Amino acid sequence: MATVESVVAVPEWFAGAIAELPEHREVEVDGCVIHLRCWGRAGTPGVVLVHGGSAHSGWWDHIAPLLATTRRVVALDLSGHGDSGVRSRYPSEVWVEEVLAAAAAGGIAGRPYIVGHSMGGRVTAEVGVRHPDAVAGLVIIDSPFQEPSAEAIAGALGRRSRTYPTEDEICGRFRTVPEQAVLLPYVARHVARESVRDTGTEWVWKFDPEMVPKRLENGLIPPLGSLRGVRAPVLYIRCEHGLVARDRALEIARLFEPAATVVELAEAGHHPMMDQPLPLVATLRTALALWDVR
Fold first, then answer.
1. Are the C-beta atoms of residues 204 and 163 closer than 8 Å to each other?
2. Taking a C-beta distance cutoff of 8 angstroms, is the pair 182, 6 a contact?
3. DSSP per residue over 54-86, as a string?
4. What superfamily in CATH does domain 12-292 come from?
5. CA distance 189 to 7
6. What is the H or E stretch that residue 132 is in?
7. pLDDT per residue over 66-123, tens digit each?
8. pLDDT per residue over 180-190, tens digit each?
9. What global pTM score does this model have?
10. How far apart are CA 140 and CA 184, in angstroms?
11. Which of 280, 290, 292, 286 is nearest to 49 (CA)?
């Protein structure tokens, strides 16, 4: 497995994308401050990028600038993640409202496209259900749409949050969850550095360590409801080496009516921004361009 410390030449496209520093904004949603990163010209049509569980908006730092050549791009930290505030509970409907608030506060004109990865894909689907007339299209990336088992939840509840004495040590511990066979080390290094915080005495990860218990209802994460109310077009991106089998991707597509379009991202693990970023960008650009002319 590639590690954060691996030495690989940084390609020109990545260096150029990272050099396009985002504009940082904040918006308050239900008493919690939500942090945003924004690219492209404000006041134009655009897209909101929604990260996965325990991740943050910085996972899109090398993706967003490549989408922002023709549109406003806003990536948010869902509450409990990144540089956003924490809550006493994390019901999915609150994350839905954060996504739409990010679109407005981030300067997107009109109905946004929403792109969500993994857990963020589930949030994206719920945005389409709860606010069917507020979105122009949904892209869901390798989201299994299955709640973790009781055993998996018990395991998560049993894990203790760790702290580290130095930035180098904590960044050296950076891993994707689930781990995958290929990580581009220059991407992993950047994301790792954006994933940690100095408390003054130690280094910690930028997510609420109580996330799992704060999401539970009656000991389980509430199941996803019906997706039949989504009116916007939906693209489902299945990663070839990700979490979702081909048959399951087709089942997920049929949860929507009309069914979502399914595209397979070849050679990609569950976190395609980490191993296949340019094919991911090409897929997103194509889908959004086609939807632009509907």
1. yes
2. no
3. T--GGGGTTTHHHHTTSSEEEEE--TTBTTS--
4. Alpha/Beta hydrolase fold, catalytic domain (3.40.50.1820)
5. 10
6. none
7. 999 999 999 999 999 999 999 999 999 999 999 999 999 999 999 999 999 999 999 9
8. 989 999 999 99
9. 0.95
10. 22
11. 280
